[in-house]
Amino acid sequence: MSNILMNRTRSQIIRFLLRNGPSTCGQIGTGLRASPSTIRRQLTLLGRAGLVQRSSNQFDASAEQVQRQVEALAESLSAQIMPTVGSSPMN
């Protein structure tokens, strides 16, 4: 999984696509009141992370794929934060 920090615009785009289904960049921008360049830039990042898919001129997000990415991120963070079993505590 690609690590992608979620900012407000990216999370709004994902919520928009989950609510409205496949949409063009223009439709997303209008719905979120954001410039087309901002939406395109964020869609590119979301696509690289596997959170958004593009077909023709429309973008879409799958609730299942978003959930898998969230779970993988939580697992990764947990592994980084929680010490491994059998490791000695730092004093």
Task: Present the secondary structure layout.
Blueprint: H1 8-20, E1 23-24, H2 25-32, H3 36-48, E2 53-55, E3 58-60, H4 63-81
Antiparallel strand pairs: 1-3, 2-3
Helix pairs in contact: 2-3
Please, what is the average pLDDT? Answer: 85
CATH topology name, in short, is Arc Repressor Mutant, subunit A
Helix content range: 55-70%
Main sheet specs: 3 strands, antiparallel
- Unreliable runs: none
- Write the H/E string, N to C: HEHHEEH
- Summed up, the domain count is 1
Number of strands: 3
| CATH architecture grouping | Orthogonal Bundle
What is the strand content? 5-15%
The strand line-up of the biggest sheet is 1-3-2
Which structural category fits the helices and strands? mainly alpha
Question: Top keywords for this entry?
Answer:
single chain; 91 residues; mainly alpha; Arc Repressor Mutant, subunit A; three-stranded antiparallel beta sheet; 4 helices
Describe this entry's structure for a reader.
The longest helix is centred in the C-terminal third of the chain and has 19 residues, at 63-81. The chain has one domain (8-81): Winged helix-like DNA-binding domain superfamily/Winged helix DNA-binding domain (Arc Repressor Mutant, subunit A). Strand 2 and strand 3 form a beta hairpin. It starts with 7 loop residues before the first helix and ends in a 10-residue tail after the last helix. 58% of the residues lie in helices and 9% in strands. It is mainly alpha-helical. The protein is built from four helices and three strands. It is elongated. A three-stranded antiparallel β-sheet has the order 1-3-2. The mean pLDDT is 85.
